[in-house]
Write a structure and sequence with these properties.
Length: 293
């Protein structure tokens, strides 16, 4: 898909991330690439506390919406065979510069998460941390993730918590609901031109199951006691995020073909399949949600 054929919201978001790369992510990427510990979310919860990834050595992983590819670099250093995908040329240029500086090499592809030019069933993990998981239409990128994964492969993605999404205003996240959850999907920010996508938990569960995923974990991320407000992404404060989750991480596994057949056979008009998961125009606002690098 050429740049001109992309949906309008993609072009708007690319323009926003080009600006953000000038203002912040180009300069911050070196710090993120040099960081040894994998962390999650705006308040950087360590992977060692969450154990979301497990051992990635030898796994084929694609990151949808990699930005400056700091997370892909973290995975590559741990022995994964990584491919980074992002629609923003400026951020990919930053990533390529850091590949040259660090010697950490992996393919980088300019593409959107809804239309990835890679073969079916070619990855063990599809990952997104504030990438396609927030900036791509979930009803298009989730089926694409399912296509890319091998049977038994995992989908791991981080986005705003639903509480954060419902309380987001032009001044940041407040303590009052400012939009309905019913029908929530596309959220537009006129001041920056950003377009985000948000779903409630029930809609996420239905969408994931409809695309052959079994949900394994939903982890809600709160600010740690020593957390400080981010220097650039100031939309949520540690005080707020000690009471309500700022981010949430979903882990789902692509069911085997046989398992999907059995579940389809069980389902009937009189007995739908169950959907369960164990849970462990909009006002203007400031800078976008984070891609730290």
């Amino acid at each position: 898909m050429s740049s001109s054929d992309r949906p309008e919201y993609v072009q708007q978001n690319v323009a926003n991330w080009t600006r953000a790369n000038t203002e912040y992510t180009d300069a911050s990427a070196a710090r993120a690439w040099a960081q040894d510990e994998i962390t999650w979310g705006v308040f950087e919860t360590p992977e060692s506390e969450l154990n979301l990834l497990g051992d990635v050595s030898g796994l084929d992983i694609v990151e949808l919406g990699c930005g400056t590819a700091y997370f892909s670099a973290w995975l590559a250093r741990r022995g994964a065979r990584v491919v980074g995908v992002d629609p923003t040329p400026a951020q990919l240029a930053t990533a390529r510069r850091l590949q040259e500086e660090t010697g950490i090499e992996f393919p980088l592809i300019e593409a959107i998460g809804e239309d990835v030019p890679l073969p079916d069933s070619s990855f063990d993990v599809v990952h997104s941390e504030y990438g396609a998981s927030l900036w791509a239409d979930p009803y298009r990128w989730i089926p694409e993730a399912a296509r890319l994964l091998r049977p038994g492969g995992r989908l791991i993605f981080l986005c705003n918590s639903i509480v954060c999404a419902l309380c987001m205003t032009m001044d940041g996240v407040g303590e009052q609901l400012v939009r309905p959850q019913l029908g929530l999907r596309k959220v537009e920010w006129p001041d920056t031109g950003e377009v985000e996508f948000q779903l409630g938990h029930g809609d996420w569960i239905d969408l994931l199951r409809a695309n052959g995923f079994e949900i394994e974990r939903l982890v809600e991320l709160f600010a740690r006691p020593d957390a400080e407000t981010h220097s650039y992404y100031k939309y949520v404060t540690p005080d707020w995020a000690r009471k309500w989750p700022a981010d949430e991480v979903w882990v789902a596994r692509k069911a085997s073909t046989r398992r999907r057949r059995l579940e389809a056979d069980r389902a009937s008009p009189g007995r739908p399949s169950s959907a369960r998961a164990d849970v462990a125009s909009t006002p203007n606002r400031g800078p976008a949600n984070p891609k730290r690098g």
